[in-house]
Amino acid sequence: MVLNHVEVISREIVKPSSPTPHHRRNLKLSFLDQIAPPVYVPIILFYDQPKFGHCFDLKQSLSETLTSFYPLAGRLKSSVTVDCNDAGVEYVEAQVHALLSEVIEKPTMEELKQYLPIEPYGTVGTSMVCREVPLLLAVQVNFFKCGGMAIGITKEKIVTRRFVFDKMKLAKLKEAAATATAAASGGGGSQLKDPTRVEAVSAFIWKHFIEVAKLKSDTQRMFAAVHAVNLRSRMSSPLPDHAFGNIWRFSSALATIDNGDLVGQLRSSIKKIDSDYVKNLQNGDGYVEYLKKAKENFSKGEIELCNFSSWCRFPVYDVDYGWASQFGCAP
């Protein structure tokens, strides 16, 4: 692990290349945006000795992109409105006194934080420097002494913790999950023969979460596995994959300490996020009541939460600035 080797060279504000029209100045947040947790989530893109015209190209590209995604250059006016005032996003350049290979080999969350312009998973408005108004987007470009580069981006979104499993371990987890499901089928299990890698990993973590809780308490409790689900393809009129916004919601699977078919529970809960669910979601009042009841149950301490999200199949490895293929990615 290599720490304290990042030196910030410059920090500035980049604004949209063209002004946002006046009639688009006030953007009312959707219901999903309003109920999304107001926290920053990071992504870091690593490039091995890219061929580029230094940071001018990056800043210019960012400025032009903000013209299309103008709300990101604005400021939160209230809990329901973004002032699209072209105030800009923070752009940081930093020199890394280390080799890219040293960082990418066994990255840790503590180390990766250095390549980000804002503290990851912190509440919107908190960062490494004091600001009067919270940013919605910030970018940090890190130059390694070997010629490699890392682009760290923090955007307001949801909370997550990072786990890494290699291909062989994933195969073993899937096999173990299928075996556990088959063993539980006599008691009404789902008999899933081929769990997905997300299902297998989630069930593995959930299982051990339950086992640890069992050691700490003899009380019979319920355990909820909460999974972030992309709603774009689950609507009656599906949205494009690249549709912009917080178009996701949580599925929730419940299990007791003695429940064996965790994979089946997960798949069943995610399948419930369908077009009918989205229609009910569009009736905001009804969904708010559901959230209130869920909060009451969780506040009583009768249910413990284990939260999951997955970046599998997200095209993060396809981000190409025209230099070279991506070397790695760290959410």
From TrEMBL:
InterPro entries: CAT-like_dom_sf. Keywords: Acyltransferase, Transferase. It comes from the Eukaryota. The keyword Acyltransferase applies. The keyword Transit peptide does not apply. Belongs to the plant acyltransferase family. PANTHER family: F21J9.9 (PTHR31623), VINORINE SYNTHASE-LIKE (PTHR31623:SF110). This is Vinorine synthase.
